[in-house]
User: What shape does this take?
Amino acid sequence: MNTLLVASEVKKTFIMHMRGGVELPVVANVSFSLKAGACAVLGGPSGVGKSSILKMLYGNYGCDSGQILVQHHGRHVDVASASPRLVLEIRRDTIGYVSQFLRAVPRVSALDVAAEPLLIRGVEREAAREQARGLFKELNLPEKLWSLPPATFSGGEQQRVNIARGFITDHPILLLDEPTASLDAANREVVIDLIARKKAEGAALLGIFHDLDVRNAVADHVIDVSAFAAGKAAA
Amino acid sequence: MTAPMTETNTQNLASYNFAYLDEQTKRMIRRAILKGIAIPGYQVPFASREMPMPYGWGTGGVQVTAAIIGRDDVLKVIDQGADDTTNAVSIRAFFAKTAGVATTTATPDATIIQTRHRIPETPLHAGQVLVYQVPIPEPLRFLEPRETETRKMHALEEYGLMHVKLYEDIARNGRIATTYAYPVKVEGRYVMDPSPTPKFDNPKMHQSEALQLFGAGREKRIYAVPPHTNVVSLDFEDHPFEIQHFTEPCALCGAEQVYLDEVVLDDKGGRMFVCSDTHHCESRRAEGHRGALLGDEPVVEKEAAI
Amino acid sequence: MSDADTLEALAKAGIPAPVKPLLTVEKLTRVYGKRIGCADVSFDLWPGEVLAIVGESGSGKTTLLNCISSRLTPTCGTVHYRMRDGVSADIYKMAEAERRYLMRTDWGFVHQNPIDGLRMTVSAGANVGERLMAVGNRHYGNIRGAAIEWLARVEIDEDRVDDQPRTFSGGMRQRLQIARNLVTEPRLVFMDEPTGGLDVSVQARLLDLLRGLVSDLGLAVVVVTHDLAVARLLSDRMIVMKEGRVIEAGLTDRVLDDPRAPYTQLLVSSILQV
Assistant: This one.
């Protein structure tokens, strides 16, 4: 199986200058790989640094040290040291991300929020919207909401917009930060199905799922983040 | 250091130099004029002097005339085309007194014609100088109040703003409604304000045989259009430049294709349109041309008798 | 592996050749006597990229913007701009005529206060059309047509085309200023606090409009703002300034979500939560 992402010895510490420069070690020695057509799950108690790892892979957080090699346009690039421009390009074409919370933009309709990743890649607007409509239908998002800005939606509705936005593209790598947290059982099933389809298409997925049913349904293997707890870094 | 006093007019006004201004000042103005001629349409700053008349009465034109006039010149002064209005009469008298030159109202006979807001109907010939009195020399002033900026715009040929003004005209009135002080481009380079002459006169500036000098006393600027210079009125492709057209000929001399003034005859709405160029009108009448209101001879007799 | 290697690989893979930076700022410094306006600022800006310069009042961000946009001569340092013919030119070595031509064709400048960027006593149509006339367009009908089209793009009704901007609301004026700048389809637009002084709802509308225009036209933008929310919404990258110097620079979401410098952490923690 093709390895699409390799993290090796990634370390992250927060230095809180507002609190007298206290150092908060988050994770260290993070090493794992993601293979095409499989879904890995980050496991471990909350606060152990699962979200931080996802954010580092996406370039949202910086890394103190280590490498995150990604297959990007047929080459290996290191997200940890990539220029902002390259990170944006990797996000556009290689790594997708479904965050836990939707960052709504004023006045932009739910449909356009979901279609945006395709627009950035140069897909024609109507075609992109059509795909978004398909996903909304699948996720049972009431049609009357599609043309409204999602800022006032409920948590579950916002999350479904977010999932549509994340799954609309064919990114080879997809990061999922608790995509099912605010969903009912029926919609959780839809997400499980979406994940299965991504795997079948050969994408490498990495997720955080607190819901055990979902986790068991999608996980091919579990990466125990406790092993990367910063305290063990020195070992 | 004493300036040569060769041209002092000792007969009438012992204390004044020839043509009122001292020789140093005249030389300074001549230098500005020469520079203006060398750079057609460019506004040359000059050290404008106080003249014995208020600003707005032609102090710029008077200084230019004073700087170029010689004993053999024949001066004509018009105000809105007329030789006989206060401004024209005063300036003519001023130079008759301070320079002792001959004056005339006949356009072809004059060597220098100082004008306020008209160009004579009779085509000018080589050797004549037309001196314009200019109130606001800066054509860009309408939209750009900063002198530093307008100078830069001239220097860099940034004339888009001129068309903004014309655009506004069309947007508001459906056509270019600017009827006087209509901006022109001189020899393909400088945009120039032709002074508040009616746009009817703009074509006369183009390739004129005569030298055209412009003096703005209060604004301290001199500019010039040498003979045989291209002077093109600004316009849009779909709204080309047009001069005014009059529906009827001059009521006194019957002239067509001339600029007419409206004259109110009574308080019952009676009016007539007559040549603004009084010399042109008079010479046509002398040649026997008769306008609609000149049917009965007594009217002329009565006028002449006054 | 370096970015350069990656980009080279892209070219081999048949992916469109990587573009070169549109704007290259090197060691730009402006001092006012003994005081520093901005010091030693360097960055590249690529076509279609939005860069936010953030900082408190007096941090030097407006001085920097003015130095980059040729409105204020820097004390030292260079600003290179890649012209449409692909040649990179030092904007302070250009003839003034060329620089000013660049400013009104390939560049735009959106002022915080629309009064500084508009002609308040000429109609909206003429405000938008001015740049077209400045580059030699002499067909009234075409100019007016383009003006109306641009008013529509910034959501101003066609029937306001002959109204003067003094009769417009603050938000409309700002949108008009944007249309006036974009009519010549510039590749680079400078913005100084474009949403400053507007009501929140008006601000949201303007931001949305700007986002749309920036992505539709592929504009490169340098936007100065003290509002981190504006920076997050509009920009790809950001520079944090304090006392004239760059404190932190990078991907906008990384600087905001994982700020490193003490000052940036203070700035980010000072955002009011709604």
Observations:
- The first strand of chain A starts at residue 3 and ends at 16.
- The CA atoms of residues 178 and 210 of chain A lie 7 Å apart.
- Helices of chain A lie at 50-57, 84-93, 110-120, 125-138, 155-167, 185-200, 212-218.
